[in-house]
Write a structure and sequence with these properties.
Layout (H helix, E strand, L loop, with lengths): L1 H14 L6 E3 L2 H22 L7 H19 L9 E3 L2 H36 L4 H4 L4 H34 L7 H23 L3 H41 L1
Antiparallel strand pairs: 1-2
Helix pairs in contact: 1-2, 2-3, 2-4, 4-6, 4-8, 6-7, 7-8
Keywords: Membrane, Transmembrane, Transmembrane helix
InterPro entries: Cyt_c_assembly, YpjD/HemX
GO biological process, one term: cytochrome complex assembly
Length: about 240
């Protein structure tokens, strides 16, 4: 709760100078709101699932890394863009589905990684103090499955709201770009994992690998594309302008 309060205060400080009804189109705001959504969902998960709190160590590490990079990008001149996005009703709906989706898949990936660690520990027969604090392998499988089931449904809704937003903005229902391709690929991978689990009982290391792959694709499609456009391309353009000067 203390960690969540700190992140929420940071989010408020980022949004305070923004024009009312707009969204700050910065990489730092993307990472901060994602971290806030992850921690909010994790707190709720701990209240409804008894063993979920055992993921606190991994969730804390993931959140710390996210916030460190957010702080670095906040101070990066290439990322100091003041661009704002007008929050139309469709934009609000899309953001309201995108953030929970990414949080659900993130926690599912953390549970999958915990399952991967537990399975490796069982094979080596050398439990560590850290692995003893994690949920059991069975609990990790249940957690990742339930989170992915909800996440897949919300992701489908997010894809539909994204298409509606694209149609409102451009008049085209679907424009193939990196974000759409990566997000749709994540949807297919997660769906394939859920179908395989239902039909053949897929679990353990193979299921964890698919979950982590889906998380990687969604990360590349959500903050990854933002990183390329805000940091990489901005740095290249800035270097080119300085070189011409």
């Amino acid at each position: 709760m203390v960690a969540l309060a700190g992140v929420l205060c940071w989010v408020v400080s980022i949004f305070a100078p923004v024009t009312l009804g707009h969204w700050p189109a910065t990489l730092a705001s993307t990472m901060l709101t994602s971290a806030a959504a992850n921690l909010t969902l994790f707190v709720i998960l701990c209240l409804v699932v008894r063993e979920a709190w055992r993921l606190t160590g991994l969730v804390g590490i993931h959140s710390l890394i996210t916030l460190i990079f957010a702080a670095m990008w906040t101070s990066n001149p290439a990322a100091a863009t003041t661009e704002e996005i007008y929050l139309s009703p469709w934009a609000v709906t899309h953001i309201a589905t995108a953030l929970p989706t990414y949080a659900l898949v993130t926690l599912a990936a953390i549970a999958a990684f915990a399952a991967f660690l537990q399975q490796s520990t069982l094979k080596q027969k050398r439990p560590s103090p850290f692995s003893r604090g994690l949920p059991s392998l069975a609990d990790c499988d249940v957690l990742q499955l339930r989170l992915l089931q909800i996440g897949e449904a919300v992701l489908a809704l997010g894809l539909m709201t994204g298409m509606a937003l694209e149609y409102v903005n451009t008049g085209h229902l679907l424009i193939l770009n990196h974000k759409i391709v990566l997000t749709a690929s994540a949807f297919v991978v997660i769906g394939a994992m859920l179908i395989a689990h239902q039909r053949s009982g897929l679990r353990g290391r193979r299921a964890a690998q698919l979950v982590l792959l889906g998380y990687l694709l969604l990360t590349l499609g959500y903050p990854g594309v933002k990183f390329v456009t805000d940091i990489v391309l901005a740095s290249v353009l800035a270097s080119g302008v300085n070189g011409l000067g």
